[in-house]
Amino acid sequence: MSLYETLAAEIAKSIRDGVLRAGDKLPSVRDACAARGVSPSTVFQAYYLLEARGLIRAQPRSGYYVSAPAVSLPPEPGPSNPDGESTELAISERIFDILGSVRNRDVAPLGSAFPSPLLFPLPRLAQAMAAHLKRQDPLDTVEDLAPGNPGLRRQIALRYLIGGINVPAADIVVTNGALEALNLCLQAVTRPGDTVMVEAPTFYGALQALERQGLKALEVPTHPRTGIDLDAMETAIRRHAPKACWLMTQFQNPLGSLMPDDRKRQLVDVLARHGIPLIEDDVYGELYFGAARPVPAKAYDTQGLVLHCSSFSKCLAPGYRIGWTSAGRYTQRVQRLKLSSTLSASGPAQGAIAEYLEQGGYDRHLRRLRATLQAQQERMADAIAQEFPAGTRVTRPQGGFFLWLELPAPVDALALHRQALARGISVAPGPIFSASGQFGSALRLNYGHPWNAGTQDAVRVLGELARQACAQAVKAG
């Protein structure tokens, strides 16, 4: 991050943590320069950024002050409490029925799994694609077969190195998006009938993958801030002897949870003691709101048991469908599965992204993207606080682009989904994130699309429908 972004992030954290409170005066530009050893321009840029996000306000001839929050935000949800039993899955039909609506561009995409494509540098990527194709050697089509384009794999290895993880390019397999990487890894470490530990709630794509491969899901309690409960995981291991674990340790979908570093280390240690491979789904890792990228669980893997999967779909090139895995001791098995199924990811798409990364500018794009997403999260959270019924609980993710809402118990999320869709609004209801159909009063909302009058109105209508559902339930009960 630049100096002014780092300063702004530190001040914003102090405001979120309550160190700086509404009405407190920030240091003068001169005092901040002296304390931080930075230029007046750096301080002004940091203050302008915080002012644009509504966190501080300028008072003429006086200075900058912490703004009062527009509304008091709802409380956060508590940890989940699944029944602790493994479950055979039959969920795909419901998921397909519910999520089909997000393809309609006339529907407000609060239920979408992707951020707005308008947030990505698509013209730059198109230029990179053209430059790559102009000088492409026909024999590159052979080099691009699994494990993938050598230049792209070097660039991915560099991204790992920047994050403090030494992953050789030879250990990286390029795939058709992260979902293929995850499916290949799952196939590499399990057999039909095995049990796989997942979070509760969990990404519905994981449940579909388990169902397709004839596997059972074992849901483990998960906290919306700190992720999976490690004590409950140990208990589940002793009772059910799962063969693998599929987790998102960073900005989990749908909760947005971020496991602290010490808990990631403990997670890897627990699984290593039992010889259980971890499939780490890390597609949101670049979308952090803090000063530095948090490290994945892969950073603590010393036995090759963590199969780390990610992609460029959520942070750079959604339509290019380029993902990868660093699969540790299972790399050769994953590579062979890739060769025997789809051979390779798109050669031109691999080359275009490699070209773009080599040109530089990726981190600059990510800084803009993260700032946009954080601002949009704040706007949506404020709107939810104003529009939704009393008793609503909302997560406070430190990255990604999802909010998880738990509505007052009488509200039926599936019925609310149908009512909202009739009004041109998509949502993702809680039951699709559970193997056992839990979270019947929960919703996942996407704040990764531009905050405008249409989005604001969609949240207003959704809140109105939720209030009506609450009132009807109280009247009936």
Number of helical runs? 16
Uncertain stretches of 5 or more adjacent residues = none
| CA(first)-CA(last) distance | 54 Å
Largest sheet, in brief, is: 9 strands, mixed
Helix content bin:
40-55%
Overall 3D form = globular
Q: Tell me what portion of residues adopts beta-strand conformation.
A: 5-15%
Radius of gyration, taken over Cα atoms and rounded to an integer in Å: 23 Å
Q: Kindly state the mean pLDDT as a whole number?
A: 92
Which class best fits the helix and strand makeup? alpha/beta
Number of strands: 15
GO molecular function: transaminase activity
Organism: Achromobacter veterisilvae
Family: In the C-terminal section; belongs to the class-I pyridoxal-phosphate-dependent aminotransferase family.
Keywords: Aminotransferase, DNA-binding, Pyridoxal phosphate, Transcription, Transcription regulation, Transferase
Task: List the main descriptive attributes of the protein structure presented here.
14% strand, single chain, four-stranded antiparallel sheet, alpha/beta, nine-stranded mixed sheet
Explain how this protein is built.
This protein has 477 residues and is an alpha/beta fold. Helices cover 43% and strands 14% of the residues. The protein has 16 helices and 15 strands. It has helices at 3-16, 29-36, 40-52, 92-99, 122-134, 140-143, 150-162, 177-189, 204-212, 230-240, 261-273, 331-341, 347-359, 362-387, 413-422, 453-476, and strands spanning 56-59, 63-66, 86-88, 172-176, 195-200, 216-223, 227-228, 244-247, 278-281, 306-311, 322-326, 393-394, 402-406, 428-429, 442-446. Strands 3, 4, 5, 6, 7, 8, 9, 10 and 11 form a nine-stranded mixed β-sheet that branches. A four-stranded antiparallel β-sheet has the order 12-13-15-14, with helices on one face. Strands 1-2 form a two-stranded antiparallel sheet. Strand 6 (216-223) and strand 7 (227-228) form a beta hairpin. Helix 7 (150-162) crosses helix 13 and helix 8 crosses helix 9. The mean pLDDT is 92. One of its GO terms (molecular function) is transaminase activity. In the C-terminal section; belongs to the class-I pyridoxal-phosphate-dependent aminotransferase family.
